[in-house]
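In this section we walk through a basic example: taking a raw amino acid sequence and producing a predicted 3D structure, encoded as discrete structure tokens. The instruction is simple. Fold the sequence below.
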Amino acid sequence: MEIKQFPKEIVEKVQNEWRNNVIQRRVAVLKEMDNAVRGMNDEYAMDSWLMVGVPDEATEEDYESIAEDHEEYTDIVKLFARLVSKYAKEDF
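The resulting token sequence is shown next.
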């Protein structure tokens, strides 16, 4: 049985669409995390959040830049998890 390969153009198109979809989902998650941290009204959380890479008054380009960098995005998600955990312990 012969295995046929997809044309390179189709493969590249699908890969680009998938990548763009991932970036847009990450941007949405970053915005939600940013809103949540700002809503904590906690100076430590806010200082930590701003130092890691989410600028104050972030633009769409800022969010996209972070979302495109897997390591930076992962670091921010981990920080968010730590901040939420700390906030939940203090709040309850």
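Looking at the output, two observations stand out. The chain has a mean pLDDT of 89. Residues 6 and 88 are 50 Å apart (CA to CA). In the next section we compare this with other chains.
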